[in-house]
Amino acid sequence: MELKVLDINGNQTDKKIRFENNLFSNKSYDHSVYLEIKRYLSAQRQGNHKSKERGELSGSRRKLHRQKGTGGSRKGDIKNPIFRGGGRVFGPRPRKYLTKINKHTKDMVRKFIFEKKLTENKVKVVETMKLDIPKTKFIVKFLDSLQLKNEKSLMITGKSNRNLYLSSNNLKNFRLLDINELDCFSLLNFSYIILSEDCIEKVYKFLTIS
Description:
alpha/beta; six-stranded mixed sheet; 6 helices; 15% strand; elongated
């Protein structure tokens, strides 16, 4: 498979990126993808939810009425969970939602998603871009030249570029990531992948994992 490198205006250049067919596998990793996405989304949760139980509420501990002889049920004090404002039974407590997945499984999921994007022709390679000052109009024009203005697209660069990041930070359907901070959820969540020319070597490493 060959991909032609595009310039910042969306025009084809003489450079080509070739992905050998032996890099692609016919195996399916759907369940591993599910586990990795579940792990990623769980890790985004803060887990600081907390509700007060009856022992943590401030209020009188006085028994509301005697145990027997009133014809009513036993209620205890005003902090009983049956009353409005009372303590909550088995309420949420702070906890961590982190789950563990083997590193090799994560790598195979990332490779699988990359392969799927490549076979569906949803990967574009562009020349390395550098900006001296933040300029959102430049990114909008760039996406328009690639016909991705109304598509969810993820751009992956070889190294972080602050001006490029600031230029694209407020665009709704576009996200910029350094290759070192790439996650499987972003790869799957965005329809199109834009690879900067300076990150191709690391992408090759992702695809050669077996």
